[in-house]
Amino acid sequence: MMKPVMLSVYGAENVCASCVNMPTAKDTYEWLEAALKRKYPNQPFEMQYIDIHEPPDNEHAKELAEKIRNDEYFYPLVLVEDKIVGEGNPKLKDVYEEMEKHGYTENR
Length: 108
Fold this sequence. Notes:
This is Putative disulfide oxidoreductase YuzD. With 108 residues, the protein is an alpha+beta fold.
């Protein structure tokens, strides 16, 4: 069995200024999790939500959170493992493509 990939969704409680009328980062986390479970059933993956104002004690997470706060990236910022696959309004297609590079296959 393959090692489950880690998906990270960086965001904040409030919607980013450039992302008005789009889902919040928490909403993005939830719909992304639901979509991935439907597309890749019985293929485990891990997800984490990272608040950009209180990132975990991890240098990589802190650096990304700071870049988002400094407007270098829009949030929600979505990563598969350590690869950025979407920001602001992430596209499922891009997330799926990266998941499939890690061996995930669509349930048919």
